[in-house]
Design brief:
Helix content: 10-25%
Largest sheet: 6 strands, mixed
Radius of gyration: 33 Å
Distance between the termini: 81 Å
Shape: globular
Strand order of the largest sheet: 12-18-27-20-25-24
Number of strands: 29
Structural class: mainly beta
Number of helices: 7
């Protein structure tokens, strides 16, 4: 959506005084600053002498005491050859083209002290506001303000909604649907080369964070602060703000226009890149004035939060790879039953997968606790009925209006009046698209007596765990590539954590790329080579 634009005349509209010593009108600077911060495009539309250029015009605005950086578009008569001065329609059309409009409308506004220019703009479909210099508004003015700061009552802050996508189908709605732990708007490059494919970070050298930000509001987001935090462990549940600090890097984005995504690139200093083999999780947040992120938010709750929990692993057919991760979160203050579930596509070769606790007995205990936690009744709070009592023939008392209080209300009814009680409404929530939960994984002991959870080679396979309050359970995910996989095959698996009601609250992704087996020389060839050396 193209933001509304406010074009101002210059002389006796924003500045006044002799031509060699003009200064802003008393409320000009503050008014322009406020409207700019509210997300409006701000422009200058002015008649100027021949020889004026954009650079000279910027210098002139700054010399006048107006911050030229606050003006998104500057149009003046001597841009034309020969010059086109107001009220010529061509100069108005040229001004519109600079800000993405093809015709005047209520969203294109011209503000000046000159009445015949006001009339010309209105005839072209613009909204035009008269600001009579050292005079008062009259019936001839039409829409009129006698002080520039009166414009602030006419142009309230525009809606601005900055977001990062959680997945390719995300349009910024809260909560989001679909997976949220592998944002397509977050990627790392080992070089600042403009690439858009995610790469595993390289230890010992600078890497580069890339963040694509969107604005689906109506106004321009003038300054968005983007922060990056890298947790040196992959986790199945992250919560704002604790997990989003300390900041590894941050950068500001200026003038984020609706429907014009910007990519912010910032260096990940070599000293802050974790060692080779660390499966880190990257968490990003976009902060904008008036768009606060609630404490306790997850990535899917807030479109200002993004997560890249993706590791790319190369394996030959039959090879095994391991990665460390953490189940749970310290910010959860209650014991609860969760489900740890592995997803993978059934269209191609499928991996074998198992997890083991880094503390030998912890995983088995968590599996066995799940049965205890599941037996705890989770009854909903009792619903209270609304009580109705006639105090007199025309006086009615309603009691227990709210579930959590004993509020009452008394109504004095006129003869023949009616009271209607509409049915309660349930808050709408976008459906999440997840595979059906399948608790088919199993706990077993290996040859050494260590307990591990083994997942089925299926689209979805999970197991219930009982986690205590604030518990973090360090574990290792072991993946084995199928022996029948071919070089170049890509197999993605997602290890997700669900609440007991089936809601996915976190996850990690692993993209396995199948490479060729390393060639092995036969024993006969090796003996032959050794014999030649001896001879």
């Amino acid at each position: 959506m193209t933001p509304p634009v406010l074009y101002f005349d210059l002389g006796n509209t924003l500045v006044h005084g002799p031509s060699d010593n003009r200064v802003p009108l008393p409320d000009a600077v503050a008014t322009i600053e406020t409207l700019w911060q509210r997300g409006y495009r701000i422009g200058i539309l002015s008649n100027q002498p021949v020889g004026m250029t954009q650079a000279l015009m910027i210098d002139k605005l700054n010399d006048y005491g107006l911050d030229a950086a606050k003006f998104d578009a500057i149009t003046f008569s001597s841009e034309f050859d020969p010059p086109k001065s107001k009220p010529d329609p061509e100069i108005f059309d040229h001004a519109l083209s600079k800000v993405g409009y093809t015709a005047g409308s209520i969203r294109t506004v011209f503000i000046t002290e000159t009445l015949n220019h006001i009339e010309a703009a209105r005839n072209l479909g613009w909204r035009a506001i008269h600001t009579p210099y050292n005079a008062t508004c009259t019936t001839a003015s039409g829409e009129c303000v006698e002080a520039l700061d009166d414009l602030l009552d006419l142009f309230p802050p525009l809606e601005i909604d900055v977001y990062m996508r959680d997945n390719s189908g995300d349009d910024g709605d809260e909560p989001s649907s679909g997976s949220f732990w592998n944002s397509p708007d977050l990627w790392i490059r080992n070089q600042n080369d403009g690439g858009t494919a995610h790469q595993n970070p390289e230890a010992g050298t600078d890497n580069w964070f890339h963040t694509r930000l969107h604005n689906r509001g109506e106004g321009i987001a003038r300054l968005v602060l983007v922060t990056h935090a890298v947790q040196e462990w992959a986790g199945t549940q992250f919560v704002h703000p604790n997990d989003f600090v300390p900041h590894t890097a941050m950068i500001g984005i200026l003038n984020l226009v609706p429907d014009e995504p910007q990519i912010a690139v910032v260096k990940w200093e070599a000293d802050n890149v974790p060692p080779e083999g660390t499966h880190a999780c990257w968490l990003s947040a976009a902060y904008f004035t008036g768009d606060a992120i609630a404490t306790g938010s997850h990535v899917w709750d807030s479109n200002n939060l993004g997560q890249k929990n993706l590791s790319v692993v190369e394996m030959a057919p039959g090879e095994t790879a391991e990665m460390a991760f953490v189940i749970g979160n310290r910010a959860v203050l209650t014991s609860r039953r969760v489900v740890l579930e592995l997803w993978q596509s059934v269209k191609g070769p499928m991996l074998s997968a198992a997890i083991r606790s880094q503390s030998a007995p912890a995983l088995g205990r968590a599996v066995r606790r799940s049965g205890i936690f599941a037996r705890v009744a989770r009854s909903a709070p009792p619903r209270k009925n609304v009580g109705l009592r006639f105090l007199t023939e025309a006086r009615v008392e309603l009691t227990e209006l709210l579930d959590a209080s004993n509020d009452t209300a008394v109504f004095d009814l006129a003869p023949g009046s009616e009271m209607t009680f509409p049915p309660g409404k349930t808050a709408e929530k976008k459906p999440r698209v997840w595979p059906d939960m399948q608790l088919t994984a199993r706990l077993r002991k290996d040859a050494k007596g260590n307990e591990e959870v083994v997942f089925d080679r299926a689209a979805s396979s999970g197991i219930a765990l009982g986690l205590r309050e604030c518990e973090l359970l360090p574990a290792t995910l072991r993946l084995t590539a199928p022996k029948d996989a071919s070089e170049g095959d890509r197999i993605r698996v997602d290890l997700v954590q669900r609440d007991d009601d089936g809601t996915v609250i976190g996850g990690i992704s692993v993209s396995v790329v199948i490479r060729a087996r390393k060639s092995r020389k036969s024993p006969a060839k090796r003996r032959s080579k050794t014999a030649r050396k001896k001879s």
